[in-house]
Amino acid sequence: MPEDDLEQRKRYNVLFLCTGNSARSIMAECLLERMGSLGFRAFSAGSFPARAVNPHALEILERRNHRTDHLRSKDWNEFAKPGAPVMDFVFTLCDQAEGEVCPVWPGQPIRAHWGFSDPAAVEGRAAVVRAAFSDTYREIATRIEIFTSLPFESLDHLALERKLDAIGASRMSVASPG
Questions:
Q1: What global pTM score does this model have?
Q2: What does the pLDDT average to over 159-165?
Q3: Mean pLDDT within 112-136
Q4: Catalytic hit among 45, 58, 94, 112
């Protein structure tokens, strides 16, 4: 694609929400940054942001060569203020965030819920915790891959909402490497 076409192509702003913005939403932000590099700008936030990004989330992202130096847990109100990027899509990734009253997002983005189990809630041996984060990473990656391959230009608003809901309703089966 010629460079002029790339510059004129629409870039979609996508916000991933979780309560703490320390693991799932952070991983989704990094995955979309990589997988949707030219067509999307990824952001993440939380309703009650943690003090820091979960170290297990950082570990898996770094092992998979994601940039992590810019990551921090952010309050979702940052994205509802004047001057914030206008979101095209807002995804809740945890059931708690889905049920919370969100700020009013400028631009009336399309919203969908893509629930994932919380890998930060897994306790036990380090290998068990790492496996939970790895499984969640792969599940998020699968949904983002489907999302970024949608024919956005040919879908109206309602059809796009239905597709996003279907992606969120699907249960990704992820086999651990063996």
A1: 0.88
A2: 93
A3: 93
A4: 94
Q: Is residue 43 a contact partner of residue 17, using CB atoms and an 8 Å limit? A: no
18 is catalytic: yes
The single residue of 15, 18, 87, 167 carrying the catalytic annotation is 18
Boundaries of every domain in the chain: 13-166
Each as own residue / partner, the long-range contacts of residues 98-107 (CB below 8 Å, 24 or more positions apart, any chain) are 100/19, 100/47, 102/17, 102/47, 102/76, 103/76, 103/77, 103/79, 104/80, 105/15, 105/79, 105/80, 106/80
pLDDT at site 9: 58
Q: For position 6, what pLDDT does the model report?
A: 43
Fold of 13-166: Rossmann fold (3.40.50)
> Residue 73: how many CA atoms within 13 Å on its side-chain side?
19
Position 22 scores a pLDDT of 94
Instruction: Please tell me the distance from the alpha carbon of residue 44 to that of residue 166, in angstroms, as a whole number.
Output: 22
Of the residues 102, 131, 146, 172, only one is catalytic, namely: 102
Active site (annotated) includes residue 94: yes
Summarised one tens digit per residue, pLDDT across range 58-68 is 999 999 999 99
Decide if 102 is catalytic: yes
